[in-house]
Write a structure and sequence with these properties.
Helix content is 49%, strand content 20%. The chain is an alpha/beta fold. The protein folds into 3 domains: 92 residues, no CATH class; 124 residues, Ribonuclease H-like superfamily/Ribonuclease H (Nucleotidyltransferase, domain 5); 122 residues, no CATH class. α7 packs antiparallel against α10, α9 crosses α10 and α11 packs antiparallel against α12. The longest helix is centred in the middle third of the chain and has 22 residues.
Amino acid sequence: MRVTTVVNLMLDIPDVKVASVELTEDGVIVSLVSRVAGHRCPCGTRVEGRYDQSRRRWRHLDMMKMPVWLEFDIARVACPACARVRTEEVPWARPAARHTRDFEDVVSWLAQRLDKTAIADLMRCSWRAVNRIVGHVVVEHLDEGRLDGLVNIGVDEISYKRGHKYLTIVADHDSGRVVYVAQGATGAALTEFFDALGPQRCAQIQGISMDMASRWAEPVRTAIPDATVCYDPFHIIKWANDALNMVYSASARSLPFTGGVKVWRRTRRLVRTGAEHLDPQEQAAIRALRRARRPLFDAWELKERLRDLYRIVRPNRARAYLHAWIDAALASGLKPFINLANRFTKYFDGIVAAVEYGLSNSRLEGINSKIRLINRRAHGHRTAESLTAMIYLCLGGITISLPTQR
């Protein structure tokens, strides 16, 4: 059997055949010729003539330690459908790519699991080539269909670079996938997502989880006024912990702790710890605060009662429970918790909705942790576009099939 026949069977590319195989210093050069007449425009139109033609080379998967290159006389065609001159489409490579589809799929599959430097060493290509390949693959797989059928979404921002460089992340609560990434952490970034979604799909959104940042409020109110806004419980409890810390600091200033710094730090840790995590001895120390430092005990009790809103309160009782908590905080005489109660009054409906609908930004926080890992694995990304492509590749639900799996 001839070498060209063997290589032709190995490549198995439709509508082309191997004309020659040459072993050079650069590797194995496989020359291809077309089996069919005419040329195919990327838009799908078949064009008989050509505008001009040039020799092009694509890097393919290695063969027995040797780099493999595919060569072909590629044409530019004057497409009547596009009304302009375009480079013809070839079945073994993506448009404007300098690597074959198989090579790019292997690189992208590895990029979901390894850092780009390791991939570059393994595939014997440059780091920039890996970066370009990821971009090509993401563009091909990422379509408008990912925005269809969204019902419950979450929005959050993440810092990816020093100097207040942020990305806005929008995820689907039902699938857990990242559906949109926009540069910046502003209302304009979220508005960009709603514009891409369109009025019809915006009307399908029933719930959105987010923090209480004012930058999100106006875009949400404008684009999805009928959706239920659920404020993230993490931020609510953080506010309560901040209020508790203020009461603790005031208590330490008014009456110094006996036992020195060690006792001071131990008490601070106890009041910050959830009640369910305290052992009997620590629970006794908390009860002792009722007699020795009543304001601090009351602050701890208010914090724990607020945590119970998300832990044990039934959804149909959430509204009445939060009303009772606000009344207790206002009656406590503790200024930090009085201020917190007034703040909760402002965000009351969104806080209750998070309990009633069971939506929180915990899924977004998990996604952000994975994004930080992606960024750390690459030792940072120079551009937001590069990181965005990696987020879509790893967290956007893109499945890459290896050439051996087809």
